[in-house]
Amino acid sequence: MAIQKTSLSRETLGEAAYRYLFQGFLNKELVPGTRLLMDELAEQMGISRTPVREALQRLEREGVIEPHGGRGYVVCETTTDELDHRYEAREAIEGYAVRRAATFEAEARAQLVAEYETLLTRPQTTAEEVFLANRDVHRMIVRALDNTYLVESFDLLWNRVLTSDIWARMLDNDDVVGSFDREHRPLFDAIASGDADHAHKIMLTHIHSGRSLHQI
Predict the structure, then answer these.
(1) Locate the HTH gntR-type domain: which residues (predicted)?
(2) Which of 71, 82, 108, 186 shows its CA 20 to 30 Å from the CA of 7?
(3) CB 73: neighbour CB atoms within 10 A?
(4) Which domain holds residue 35?
């Protein structure tokens, strides 16, 4: 197993180990069913087992991997039912969030639109960048409610699709940023309009469209 290495200099070792694995999932170097051995990963990264253990335990909490053997884990398989349940949970969280966001004062709604415009300037040239852009555009709406529990639930749901191949497939589109804007612009137009019911409807349609991209 060969995973592109990441710099450990500007992060804590635990965070760097997590990012190392995070990139492996998105680059399809770590696919469902892959075994992850703590000692082997520590050797590959040139660090001790402790930060690797921290990263693995975090990924286990997020439902991306599960214990397998004494010091090992395996990347989780995802069933159709599990994927459906995740998207149903997204509808509950993000549908609620966008409905609330559309009721904000005009200035706050304009701020969300401005954040979206800034996000559009970010590159989307790798599977990791595609995943992060898609996650963050939804996360900014949930985060705007200033509810830590909702954000934590959102993060758990999104990180569980790290091993999906949809992020790499999105890169096949020559106009990936343009497609991103076409898919997400209606959400922010709806928020800006102040029409909560319309915003909720647009979000559910968008989430249903995302579910259809998965090939299971």
Answers:
(1) 11-78
(2) 71
(3) 22
(4) 13-75
Predicted TM-score (pTM) of the model is: 0.84
The whole-angstrom separation of Cα 53 and Cα 134 is 28
Tens digit of each residue's pLDDT (9 = 90 or more) over 153-194: 999 899 888 888 788 788 888 788 899 999 999 999 999 999
On whether the CB atoms of residues 140 and 116 are closer than 8 A, the answer is: yes
69 in the same domain as 89: no
116 and 191 co-located in one domain: yes
Q: With a cut of 70, which residues of the chain have pLDDT below it?
A: 1-11, 215-216
Same domain, 18 and 32: yes
Same domain for 117 and 47? no
- The residues near 40 (Cβ < 8 Å, ≥ 6 apart) are 1
Find, among 75, 69, 70, 23, the residue nearest to 45 by Cα. 23
